[in-house]
Each structure stands twice: as structure tokens, then as C-alpha cells.
Amino acid sequence: MRSGKNSLSVWYFIGWLVLIYGILILGAGSGLLAVQSPTSTADREVGIWWGALLMVIGVAYVWCFHPGRKRL
Amino acid sequence: MLAFILMQADPGRLIHLTWVDIAIVAIYFVAVLAIGFYTKGQTQTGDDFFFAGREMTAWVAGLGFLAANLSALELMGWAAASYQYGILATHWYWIGAIPAMLFLGLVMMPFYYISKTHSVSGYLKLRFGESTRTLSAITFAFMTVLMSGVNLYSMALVMKILLGWDIHISIWVSSLTVAVYVALGGLRSAIFNEVLQFVLIWLGVLLIPILGLRETGGWSGLKDRIATNMGSTDYTHLWSTLGSFQDNPMGIHWTGIVLGLGGVISFGYWTTDFLVVQRVLTAKDLRSAQLAPIIGAGFKMLVPVIVILPGLLGLALLPEKLLGEAAAVASNGHSYNEALPLMLARYLGPGLLGLGITALIAGFMAGMAGNVTAFSTVWTYDIHRALFRPHASDAHYMTVGRWCTILGVLASVGTAYVVMQFLSIMDYVQALFSFFVAPLFGTVLLGMLWKRATPAGGFWGLLLGTLASVGMWIWGRLDPGALSIIALSPNAASMAENMYRALWSWLVCVGVTVVVSLATTPLPEQSLTGLVYGHITLPNDAQVPLLQRPTFWAIVISVVFVILNVVFW
Asked: What is the pLDDT of residues B35-75, one digit of tens each?
């Protein structure tokens, strides 16, 4: 998956971005529990579990494609 | 600065963003620029800049191949089409893509890859000579920039309607961001960003079908609600209503879908449009190049989940009826094009909404970067090098490529402003692009599979096929009755015209190429090596493990493709 010799994998970039998004969305979802949801039919817990899922995916990608990690 | 710009919103906008949403959008811009700066250090040669060093894995090339096509307008446009026409819109993702993508991987890619061509026009030079290459390169470069400009304007308009963003700021911020990251890292940067954008598109929109199907009680509940709302079950059948033009919401016959869309338009687009083919040419070896479009086909089959399902869910769940653009403006209601944004607003709260908007912006940037990189390569290799500086250094061509990237973006911005003043141009530009796709497929296909095709046959076939398409289009504009003749039925709707026009123009191209070729001197056999079926040596896959063989995965995807069509018949 790496673009070339001695270079970072694109999945490493993606892992970090998804992790950061997961943290932000989880935080926003948690904050939403305390107030009225602005969306008409939104499940107020969606932000929490989707943010958590993004965090898990992000951590997994950062770990798997870390440049210091020896890969098969 | 960006956050400030994003906050300058019109209070009448459809969607309201919070600071978390704005942070998510802003972080995305930072990420794509960071990738541009990072990949600049790895872009040392022309091959690096124009072909990402030809060292991409099948997965990266395959996702780039798909993402370059998955623009924001595609997302919103096909969600709108599925609201308007029902599940029939899925044909553009399945029969209108999968067979062509598999054909590219299994049949055509060896010719492109082994000939080491720089572009589709470059292949035409090797096979048919300079005149055919110049004709296709100039039309492609010109149309690519125009299309990019039309998409740029459309995207800025969407952002104004959805978020109230200033149209000029949307145009300049998004296009300059694309210019910076592509000019810095070339195709490597574009493809890296396309893979990122592909992931974000899925993460941003996937919640709509998940939450929507939960609300409707699954697929059967969705079908029941649509049948109740529309008073018909026609909106949830893929094939059973295509027996006649008047039995389905699209006004089209199955022959138009199978022969026009599935047989000519999709093959023309997916196998000869350099915008997508260029991504596959970056693969590190022939097997990866063959696998890339097959991987792309696998994901393409899934795209209706995030594009078609939101439109169908809108049909089932939205309390108001969406209208055509003119009717929506007249009644101050919502148009079909707002189906996806309305579903985003319905389900997504703070943070998630920012991710959804980021998905739309990412889709737009992937499409624009695809246009710009393809333009830059074709201009540099097939026009500048071929006509003006044939023996310059590699560094010279890379510099030209960087300048072409910037000029391509500026030309797109210029086109966007022209379109803003003369809206009707938009329809003309989109029609113009469609003129070249079907005949070009005829020319390339005969070039690859028929050794008797000659340079004169290739040139005149391409030219007359294109002119036939233009002629039919003009005829249709001047005489409304022409549609019934072109589409072979008085009940045909406008959507059917494109299908049949493509079919006829392809047949004209093939017919002219065959006749002229038979009337002219054939090329010597030795000049066809590596270019034509029967004169190309393919690597033997006998020792390759089954799971690494392109043919195996093409069969798997074909089986799934057939099953899906039967299930949603």
C-alpha cells in the first residue's frame, strides 16, 4: 500500500484523519446528550457510536501502517 | 481564515453547521494540502509527476480509478435521479459500469500497459498515427477543462444553496486547494487524496442508509412505503418495468439500457476516458493494472448503497414532495437535487453533518483533480511534446506539467464564471463531452482487436462517428420529433436519447473504420507488435495463486453482479 520506497503509506494518513474525526464526532455526540438534538429524527446516540467506530478504525490504521512497524 | 469564510453563511441556507462541523471541514483542507507537500518530496521525474512513478498497488490504483469518477455532483445527481426515477438509476452503477470495468481489466489493460503509453491518445498515436492522436488529444484536453469548470460552478452553487457560502469564495478556495496539491505532488498526490476522499465519502454518507433502513423497517418496509407514496411498485424494480417505454418512470426500453448504456456509453467512458484510465496506468505491474479496475468494479457495485438508497429513502420518508428545478423555484419548494442534502440534514447531528459536507467537498475535489491531472498529462505529452517540443528534457516536461496544472485550474475557474453568466452553456458542455465517448471507444476497440484497421480508417471513423453524434444532437434540438426516430419509439423520454445517440454514433464510427480500412493499405505486421490482439505477449498466470489472478476476481464479481440484478429484478 505504500507509494514507493521509504515512503509513508496513504493508509497511515487516513488513519490519523479518521482518528481525529472520531474524537471530534464522539465529543460532539456526547455534548448532544445534554441538549435538545437539532435534527428532526436523529438518534441522539448516533454521534457517540459512529465517533467511537471512527476512533477504532483510525487507531487500527495508524497502528498497522505506522512507518516504524515491520510489515509483512 | 477558512473557518471565518465558512461562517459567512446565508441565514436562508438548508443546513446549519456548528463549530465542530467547521473544524472537520477545515481539518480536511489541511490534510489534503499536507499530502500535497509530503508527496512533492517524492516527485522527482516526469514519470513520478504524471504516473506516480508507476509503483501503485492494485488497491490504491483501483480506489483512485473509482474516486476520480465519484464526484460530489455524481453523489447528489444520482441521489436526485433515484428519487425521480427509482431504482432504475442503479443501472448506471451496475450494467452501466461493471462489465466495462471488467473488460478494461481483462482485455484492454494489457494493450495500454504493455505499450507503455502515456495516455489513450498516446495509444492512438502508436496504433493509428499522429492525426488520430491529435484529434483525440485536443478534443479531450478542451472538453476536460470545460467539464471541470462546469462542475466547479455547480459545486459552488450547491454550497451556496446548502450552506449559504459565497459562490466566489467556494470557487477560489476549492480550486486553488486542488491546484496546490496537484501541482506539488502531481498524480501521486492526486491519487493519495482520491483514496482519502473515497474513504471520507463512505464514512460521511453511510449513516444515511443505515439510519434510513432502520426507520423504514428494512428493504421490504422501504418498498412498501414507496409503493404507498407513489401508488406504484415501478420504483423498486430494476428490470421488470423495462419491457416498454411507457411502463417505467424513466421512459426507456431495456435495449437502450443494455446496448446504449451498458454496451457503448459505459465501455466508452470506463475504457477510453483518460480521466479514469490514467489512474490504472500508475500500477506497479501488469497484474496490478489488471486488478485495479476489477477492485474498482467491486466497490462500484456497492456505491448505490450511499447514492441510490438515500434517494429511495427520500421517496419513502420525506414529508414533502420534491420537484424539478423550475417548479421548485416557482413554488419555493425543494428540488430533486436536494434529496441527499435533505437526508443529511434529517439524520446527522453536529460533527456528523460536518463529515457529510466534507464527503461532498472531497467528492468534488477528487473529480476536479482527476480532470486537471488528465488535462496536464495529455497537454504535455500529446500536444506540447508532439507538436512543439518533441526532444526536450524530462525536467522540461515536468515543469510544463506543473504549469498546465495551474493553467488547467485557472481555465476551469474561467469556465465557471462564463457558465455563471450564461447558464445554458452548461447543457451544451455536458452534451459536447458525450459526443466523443462512444466513437472513441469504437476506434480504440478496433485498434486493439482488429489488425486490419488502418490509420486512415481510425481517423475517419473517429471523426465521422463524432460528427454523427453532434448531428443527431443538433437534430434533436431543432426538431422535437427527432427523438422518436433516434430512440426508435414515439414513447421515448429524453433520457433514452443519449443511449441511442451513443449507439448510432458508435456504429457509424465502427462502420466507417471498417470500410475505409478495407479500402486502404494495411499496416505491416511488425508495426503492430504490442498493440493488437494476436501481436501481444501476455504473461502466463499458470503459476500465480488463484486469489491473485485477475480472471478469478472478475468471475467472482460477475457472479455477484448477476445475483444482484436478479434479486432486484
From this structure: 888 888 888 888 888 888 888 889 888 988 888 777 666 77
Q: How many CB atoms lie within 10 A of CB B331?
A: 9
**Do the Cβ atoms of B538 and B110 come closer than 8 Å?**
yes
Contacts of A29 in chain B (CB under 8 A): 349-352
Q: How far apart are CA B413 and CA B399, in angstroms?
A: 21
Is B463 within 8 Å of B131 (Cβ atoms)? no
Q: What are the chain B neighbours of A44 within 8 Å (beta carbons)?
A: 349
pLDDT tens across B90-126, in order?
Answer: 998 999 999 999 999 998 888 888 888 888 888 899 8
Confidence at A1, pLDDT banded by 50, 70, 90: very low
**What is the model's pLDDT at position B498?**
78
All three cell numbers of B415, joined, read 469556465
Decide if A17 touches B, using CB distance below 8 A: yes
- Mean pLDDT is lowest, of B13-17, B486-490, B548-552, for B13-17
Q: Give per-residue pLDDT as tens, B452-463.
A: 999 999 999 999
Each residue's pLDDT tens digit, B151-198:
788 778 777 777 778 888 888 888 888 888 888 888 888 888 888 888
Chain B residues whose beta carbon lies within 8 Å of the beta carbon of residue A40: 346
pLDDT, residue B35, reads 87
Q: Assign B283 to helix, strand or coil.
A: strand
How large is the ipTM? 0.85
Partnered with residue B335 across adjacent β-strands are: B323
Could you tell me which residues are beta bridge partners of residue A9? A2
pLDDT of the residue at B426: 58
Q: Which of A4, A27, A41 sits opposite B55 (nearest CB)?
A: A4
Put simply, whether A31 touches B (Cβ < 8 Å) is yes
Residue B81 contacts residue B311 (beta carbons within 8 Å) = yes
Binary contact (B350, A47; C-beta < 8 A): yes
Q: How far is A25 from chain B (nearest CA, A)?
A: 5
Any A CB within 8 A of B35 CB: yes
Per the CB < 8 A criterion, the answer to whether B87 and B238 are in contact is yes
Give the whole-angstrom CA distance, residue B427 versus residue B146: 12
Which chain A residue lies closest to B203 (C-alpha atoms)? A54
Report whether B78 contacts B308 (CB < 8 A): yes
- Cα-based distances in Å from B293 to B65, B103, B280: 7, 9, 7
Q: What are phi and psi of B104, to 5 degrees?
A: -60, -50
Please provide the DSSP assignment of B420-453 as one string: HH-TTHHHHHHHHHHHHHHHHHHHHHHHHH-TT-
Residue B531 DSSP label: T
